[in-house]
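Q: I have two molecules that I believe assemble together. Could you output structure tokens for the complex as a whole instead of separate predictions?
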Amino acid sequence: MNVATKANAGMVARDSPETGFMADDGPAAEIVARADFSDVTFSLEFRHPMMARAARPGQFVIVLSHEHGERIPLTIADFDRDKGTITLVVQAVGKTTRQMQQACRPGTTLFSIVGPMGEPSRIGAVMKVVCVGGGLGVAPVFPQARAFKERGAYVVGVVGFRNKALVFWGDKFRKVCDELIVCSDDGSVGIKGLVTEGIKVAMAKHADIDEVVAIGPPIMMKACAETTRPRGIKTTVSLNPIMVDGTGMCGGCRVKIGDKMMFACVDGPDFDGHLVDFDDLMNRLRRFKEEERQAMEKWSESCRMAAPAGR
Amino acid sequence: MAAKRKTIRTIPQQRTPMAVQDAAARVKNFGEVSLGYEEKDALVESERCLMCPEPACVCGCPVSIDIPGFIAKIIAKDYRGAYDVLTDSNLLPAICGRVCPQEIQCEGVCPVGDTLKPVAIGRLERWVGDRAIAEGWTNVPYIEPNGFRVGIVGSGPAAIACAADMAKAGCEVTIYEAFHKPGGVLRYGIPEFRLPDRVVDGEIANLTRLGVKIRCNTLVGRLFTIEQMIGEMGYDAVFIGTGAGYPSFMGISGESLNGVLSANELLTRCNLMHAGAFPDYDTPLHLGKRIAVIGSGNTAMDAMRVCLRLGAEKVHCVYRRTKVESPARVEEVEHAEEEGVEFHWLTAPVEILDDGDGKVRGMRCIRMDLGAPDESGRRRPVPIAGSEYEFEADMIVYAIGTNANPIIGQTSKIKLNRRGYIDTDDDLATSLAGVYAGGDIVTGGATVILAMGAGRKAARSMKAYLGIRDTDIVYLSEHQRRANTLFGIDAAEKAFARLHVA
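A: Yes, here they are, computed for all two components at once.
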């Protein structure tokens, strides 16, 4: 108790057994598990009991993988309050994510991870909901589907992948859906076509869909919103603009919703898909195309020059 | 023994100049612009203080530093003593000496300034603060722990000041910071050439020496709420110092084009994430060549001067009023002018223009005139019809102010005022029992010293709330115990009866 008397008290671990909260001190959250779904997609499970307790569907974290790194948002794809872990699913598309793909293994930590961030998804008292996930998007929409199911809704899951080999979390998702429609670009599994085809199948079958939740690349979410617009079905999307702080203080993640400007990190990330200006979002995502290319080139160069790690 | 009384004629007449990096050289580096005094400069300048019996400067200071007190110690070459006097009221002398707008505070009311230039109080404070960091001085008095646990949200000036006071009073203090590094606006907002990181680190190290725990990467409101802090987590009192960062935009067309960003984003990328060193650091910036910054406050000055140092060809300041109304610290405007920033007063943007590929190519501006005063007393800018023209720019930075950060309001039942800031009473108590707030999250964007003053004021209220009896004697100014007074009466008073003083 008498920590304050010591001149150099510093970072002493302090549990509060009477509250069940463990002070968030010591090293950053540790990675306890990793799964690779393809040569670009992988999941990381972090031990972070406080965040697992606080996380709600739709929220994200901001991650800084090393001290010279950049802060990037990643959706919380799963959280286990009993195990005390949260799971992120990452697509290695640029320097930072490729570096994470190489370096992040069980037992390692990231330089910093903060969250949960963003307004949680509104899991309302809907009777029937379609949860749509495209490519990477099946991961972030999983917690919403699970929450709707737990609420007692009838959940139709629609997932899309380029081909059968890229499918992941199939069983995991099936468990939280009453119906699952799988789509693939090449028809190797499920329906041939994009997730919009899957939505059309669901819309044809069910006249009483209350809400559609669609998460994926902006072009996919835009297409989903256009598919539901004629029937006027409430469509919720989760936007993924470039972010720095994630706490609403820089405005870098600003998006156009109807005639208003909002910050995706604190006013979102969920928004009404029929009001989102997707073209603006896609334009803003091109902000650093040049720097991204430069960073990838430098990274690939340094990979070629480094001694190959045993794989 | 009464010292020889100083008069305006006997003190050094010139304000001691302070070394400053040459303008042409300093636009290419992030080294400090103002280089500070040497010991000999400090000794000469401190002689200029008239040691007024009723010092106006103490009232002019938002935290009532005993200014004649610390200056007297410098004269006596008791630099440690000067540091002690300073830190009675101000934990961060090296920071405030650099960033306070002294011209409207202590130096603004210094009577020497009526005839000559005022005593350079800020520079003296900075000199003492820097000396303390160099020598590793800390004032850690013996602290009697009282068992109370205090939670502080944020790690900017208000939070740091509150944390220091509560720790000195014997509480177990924990600071929660959302970013990966503490300091708040001192870290992400004020650039390296005005306030080096090592100074911020030095002042924060003092906090840990007092026993304060600092937990970064913790977003209060989302990881846990204010209510949980008071409830399950068992904090006896909480201070909220989350700041006013939620940048304002104008709502004109084209604001979401690539190349348009808020000053907060520019400064966070550069100061906190070191985007200037891309690709050695991963955060990009994509600096323009011809940059326009809208606004003329301290944030705008910082944004402009950062852009110059990062290699912009030309940086412009666009402001709808004139230099007179500019809210920035005078020294910053002067330095910006010297560094080659071009100022466009009485000008406002109307529309941001697209280059056809989703990027900014310029803006349409309109000339303004100052009309009748508005409610704040300042003359309202009025557009001059037909004066629109195109201004070429490939990067536009908004530095027109901020609003309240919404997260605490979203996640707590705490009462907010009409503008979204946290509502407090005169003692900085919020609507939640045991929860206090101060700084920009209460007042809107202001200054470091005002935030610190608020942090200290909240600490006083929190101690009263917890029932901690603080003798407060350490905070009383020493000027009532100075050498040339006797029971508060100036010893030079001729009509005073002689008394033996033991």
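A: One point stands out. The longest strand of chain A covers residues 71-80.
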